[in-house]
Amino acid sequence: MQALSGKHAISHEVLLTTRPISLDGNDVEAKRQQLLAYFVSTWEQYEALFSALKDEALYTSAESLRHPLIFYFGHTATFYVNKMILAQFTEARVDPELEAMFAIGVDEMSWDDLDCAHYDWPTRELVKEYRDKVKARICAFIKSMQITLPITQQCPAWLVLMGIEHERIHLETSSVIARMLPLDLIDARQAESWPVCTKAGIAPSVQWLPIPATAVKLGKSDSDRSYGWDNEYGFDEQKVEQFKVATTLVSNQDFLKFVQAWGYKKARYWTAEGRQWLAFTKSRHPKFWRTTLNGEYLQRNLFSEMPLPMDWPVEVNYLEAKAYCNWMAERIGEPVRMPVEAEWSALRQSELGEDSGSGNINLEQYASSCPVTDNRHGRLYDVTGNVWQWTESPIDGYPGFTVHPWYDDFSTPTFDGKHNLIKGGSWISTGNETLASSRYAFRRHFFQHAGFRMVISEQAPKTQTQDNVYETDELIAQYCEFHYGNEYFSVQNFPVACVQALMAHVQANSIATDRALDLGCAVGRSSFELAKNFQHVDALDFSARFVQQGAKLQAHNRLRYTLPVEGDIVEYREVLLDKLGYDDVKDRIDFLQGDACNLKPQFTDYNVVFAGNLIDRLYEPAIFLNDIQARLLSGGLLVLTSPYTWLEEYTDKSNWLGGVKVNGENFSTLDALKQKLADSFDFEEAVDVPFVIRETARKHQHTVAQLTVWRKR
């Protein structure tokens, strides 16, 4: 292996600490020294990248979607300070003004967004002084902090690792920005510390390797002894159908044929998103290719250019890779695409096993790509390293995903169906990025040191839909928590308590449990509870957006939402259907939009009708009470709950059932119910059922509903 050399080279001993360190160990002080070495090597390696840039380079906007590099020079240091304050390991800032400036970047933007903000950026020397102060503080923190082994996610050492791995991410993303700078802004002498591969030749023809069907287990367990980001944890098992895979990454030589075939001008190869991106950017070839006056291509590497190396992997965004696959599919008459995450994981497991992944990765060979046949992994080349590999999979949290409170927005903003996973790492991927479990994703138009590998498969890739994103509508999220979230102030979950109460009457009266109607089901918890006891449940709500939440949980096994804590601060919640015990009964429910005052004829012949907190939100509650009687079987139960909060915004006052004066006397809703149901129902019981709705972490509604039970004669 060729380690980086030169004035800013990392020593061999420190280079060894660029591989992620274990959370395990028996010697606390030895682990402390290992953490310190890992921190220092990361810090110095990051600064070595910036040392190869002239001052002007740090203030040049090489990429409109991101800040100039001076921001990232300060940002990774600020990250440590902000996280230490958040985790309450310190209250002291190093430089409040700089930390306000360097806190948040602009990495998640559409291609037509522009960074139009104007900043009075500090000098390079001032930022370096700031970094030196933060470095000293973190070193002192590591030397004095309490360490328990193994390191857990609540330990101070976890925060240090979070900062280290965060800086390693920015080592790579900053190198991508540096690669876009004009060459005259590069310090050639310092750039010698980042050696480029000098080998180049003719790329091999595409060879396809058959891969048998298999099952893949995805997700990092809590017992894994390496640092992980929140999106890596959880568990998902997926079936992978048989497919064929190209033994090498797509090369510059391969992709040049697409360019020469006018692939960038033929709309049929591009997705709708790809066509929009093309129209905006006017791209005609990959980002890091340059054309000469005589029409030949050069490739821009990190700090230099060279004639296009034909047998190196092409580096493109997902949109370009997808267009190439569509072009190739047309040429060979086979369903060509990129692998999904599970297929890539199957390849890695079959070709590398438990190997940590050698090759052109971790800056152990070059500070550039190299030929696609230089690093063999089993029957394939470059399973890991050389360039990242785009996949067809939008990133999503595995079942069981939870955010880490010290970095709650690391992953969740990317769970939007617009960020695709890249796998395998590149030549400059270090630390966590080199692990099989790592999961990084970018918008499909973003450029990284990323290329792609082709597969042939009849199995259509699973694409993420909006069903998997976090619900941020305040009212819907509030109801999701009301139905599926925590119990507050020792008050039992309301839908569960109501169904338990009504089932006591079902059992006492030996009522059949064939069919139930859940009217005003909201987001569906009472529907699932009823399904545990009834063979079929129709779940209706007037709000399509409400009833869709129950349908999402039924279809996808999970429901996600954000809860306000205070101001702009939120918590992220995930509900899993199987954890609630409903997986075996979910298919008994039909979630539908419906109007309780105008039900369709098919909603009939029920053993039980449950209308939870519904009647005081109906525009014609009397019509509902008259109509519902015919939809119940003889001997069946009508169960109503309500806090009787009559409001004219829902029900015209002339239609209120109760809460009014009649002939000068108080007339309650219970009085009205007894009057209107007397001809067909026997009144069985009225009990109070309290409930709590969370508004923020420190504000809750505590309400008492009345549950009434009526048996049809």
Tell me what you see in this structure.
This protein has 713 residues and is α+β, with helices and mostly antiparallel strands. The protein has three domains: 12-191, Four Helix Bundle (Hemerythrin (Met), subunit A) (Up-down Bundle), CATH 1.20.120; 238-248 and 313-461, paralog of FGE (formylglycine-generating enzyme) (Alpha-Beta Complex), CATH 3.90.1580.10; 474-712, Rossmann fold (3-Layer(aba) Sandwich), CATH 3.40.50. Helices cover 30% and strands 20% of the residues. It is built from 18 helices and 26 strands. The chain has a seven-stranded mixed β-sheet with strand order 20-17-16-21-22-26-25. It has a four-stranded antiparallel β-sheet with strand order 1-4-15-8. A four-stranded mixed β-sheet has the order 13-12-11-14, with no helix packed on it. A hairpin with a 4-residue loop joins strand 6 and strand 7 (305-307). The longest helix has 24 residues, at 28-51. 45% of the residues are buried.
Notable characteristics:
single chain; 713 residues; alpha+beta; Four Helix Bundle (Hemerythrin (Met), subunit A); paralog of FGE (formylglycine-generating enzyme); Rossmann fold; 3 domains; four-stranded antiparallel β-sheet; 30% helix
